[in-house]
Amino acid sequence: MAKLSKEEVKHVAKLARLAITEEEAEKFAEQLGAITDFAVQLNELDTTNVQPTTHVLPLVNVFREDVAVKGLDRDVMMKNVKEQQDGLVKVPPIIKD
């Protein structure tokens, strides 16, 4: 088993801005070592006849055709607006000095 050192685990924890104890560093070193060992085992598989894939299921877009349609009449739409100015919706300022 390729065990990571506690120093390597502490370094990764520091990069991730995680505070870990000595006991946690020891435990994580063993667990991460087991994970890397499993990844090495995957390299032993024969994948010469396996097609590359990004997802296990075939994905198909379900988007509609992009067709331009006439929008709502501005005058009708502006009847529902609380405040307007020059044909535009007027909103209160959100940035204050």
UniProtKB/TrEMBL annotation:
Reaction catalysed by this enzyme: L-aspartyl-tRNA(Asn) + L-glutamine + ATP + H2O = L-asparaginyl-tRNA(Asn) + L-glutamate + ADP + phosphate + 2 H(+); L-glutamyl-tRNA(Gln) + L-glutamine + ATP + H2O = L-glutaminyl-tRNA(Gln) + L-glutamate + ADP + phosphate + H(+)
A Pfam family the protein falls into: GatC
Listed SUPFAM superfamilies: Glu-tRNAGln amidotransferase C subunit
Keywords per UniProt: ATP-binding, Ligase, Nucleotide-binding, Protein biosynthesis, Transferase
InterPro entries in alphabetical order: Asp/Glu-ADT_sf_sub_c, GatC
Name of the top EC class for this enzyme: ligase
MF GO annotations: ATP binding; glutaminyl-tRNA synthase (glutamine-hydrolyzing) activity; transferase activity
EC number: 6.3.5.-
Gene Ontology annotations of biological process type: glutaminyl-tRNAGln biosynthesis via transamidation; regulation of translational fidelity; translation
Family statement: Belongs to the GatC family.
NCBIfam families documented for this protein: gatC
Task performed by this protein: Allows the formation of correctly charged Asn-tRNA(Asn) or Gln-tRNA(Gln) through the transamidation of misacylated Asp-tRNA(Asn) or Glu-tRNA(Gln) in organisms which lack either or both of asparaginyl-tRNA or glutaminyl-tRNA synthetases. The reaction takes place in the presence of glutamine and ATP through an activated phospho-Asp-tRNA(Asn) or phospho-Glu-tRNA(Gln).
Subunit structure: Heterotrimer of A, B and C subunits.
The name this protein goes by in its record: Aspartyl/glutamyl-tRNA(Asn/Gln) amidotransferase subunit C
Gene source species: Rummeliibacillus stabekisii
Protein encoded by which gene: gatC
